[in-house]
Amino acid sequence: EKAVNLKKDLAEMQEWMTQAEEEYLEKDFEYKSPEELENAVEEMKRAKEDVLQKEVRVKILKDNIKMLAAKVPSSGQDLATELNVVLENYQLLCNRIRGKCHTLEEVWSCWIELLQYLDLETAWLNNLEERVQRTENLPDKLDAVSDALESLESVLRHPADNRTQIRELGQTLIDGGILDDIISEKLEAFNARYEELSHLAVSRQITLEQQLQTMRETDHMLQVLQENLAELDRQLTSYLTDRVDAFQMPQEAQ
């Protein structure tokens, strides 16, 4: 009777493993939304816990069959053969579910990381847009233009590392068919805004550089003119002091 019960337990264990394999490993999942992906991760975590909890039951079965084999070798031998099959299948199931759980957790982590990089770069784009807007309607003063140019250039020196991460993470998920529509839409919107703002910022940078160069040249010309006028004023004052007749002066002084 004990052998019959153990045989029944082994059959039930095998049946449970077959159902678990069908439910957790043979489904074709299409992760088209973050909610679907998150639910799949949570389901696979529960599956891993569920499978690992059966380890106690498997150990009890193993111990009982060993005890029976010691007492009744003939009955125990057949059960031991069946037990080895169950143990092998159970270990395989554990490994496969662990592997799938790990894969889904990595995919979810990749999605979260992508969102974090997108948030960082979006904040940078917002800052860049604000700096570009500050360059509009500037006072016609050298200091104001110089400060605006320096401020814009400091933002443009932003490293490209985050954008590289966004591209690689997005492509990895898309290649796996995971959230591909959502990610493609996000990347398309981000890249379009990045191209538009970066081109606008570089164009405004060039304009400010040219404006600043013109203002510096004008400032230099005014400074030279002021120095020449001061020298001429000194000469004229000297002539007046010496009571020199205008017709005795050089033509330019007249």
Automatic annotation (TrEMBL):
Transmembrane segments: none annotated. The lineage of its organism: Eukaryota, Metazoa, Chordata, Craniata, Vertebrata. InterPro entries: Spectrin/alpha-actinin (IPR018159), Spectrin_repeat (IPR002017). Residues 3-64, 208-242 form a coiled coil. The keyword Metal-binding does not apply. SMART domains: SPEC (SM00150). It comes from Herpetotheres cachinnans. This is UTRO protein. Keywords: Coiled coil. The keyword Coiled coil applies.
